[in-house]
Amino acid sequence: MQFISISRRLTERFSDEQFAEHIDAERERVRELYRDGIVRSIWSRKDAAGAVMLLECADEAEANSAVESLPLARRGMLEVQILPLGPYPAFSPKR
């Protein structure tokens, strides 16, 4: 199954210095998830500090676990929404 993870850094609660302490570990963890085929694509948000990731996981629990493994998420420094995706109905065969 595919999921979209939309995260936003909680910049109103944490300083730039606090984010900077963990950003290298965050990037390394995302690279690991990409290597393992869980993160399929990732984009930086332009409207807020954060990211959007396309995840490939067996179920929502696995998607949550992957996102929760990120250092910033583990420290409560992110607001995260995970949405399940399904096929677009216009591409399904007509009945």
Notes on the structure:
The protein is α+β, with helices and mostly antiparallel strands. The chain is built from three helices and four strands. The protein has a four-stranded antiparallel beta sheet with strand order 2-3-1-4, with helices on one face. The two termini are 24 Å apart. 17% of the residues are buried. The model has no long low-confidence stretch (mean pLDDT 96).
List keywords for this structure.
3 helices, 95 residues, elongated, 31% strand, 4 strands, alpha+beta, Alpha-Beta Plaits, four-stranded antiparallel β-sheet
Summed up, what is this model?
The chain is of the alpha+beta class.
What spatial form do the alpha-carbon principal axes imply? elongated
CATH structural fold name: Alpha-Beta Plaits
Query: By helix and strand content, what is the structural category?
Result: alpha+beta
**What would CATH call the homologous superfamily?**
Dimeric alpha+beta barrel
Proportion of beta-strand residues: 25-35%
Radius of gyration: 15 Å
Query: Order of SSEs, N→C?
Result: EHEEHHE
The number of strands is: 4
The poorly predicted ranges are: none
Cα-to-Cα separation, first versus last residue: 24 Å
CATH architecture: 2-Layer Sandwich
CATH class: Alpha Beta
Mean of pLDDT: 96
Overall tally of structural domains? 1
Question: Strand order across the biggest sheet?
Answer: 2-3-1-4
The helix content is 25-40%
Biggest beta-sheet profile:
4 strands, antiparallel
Number of helices: 3
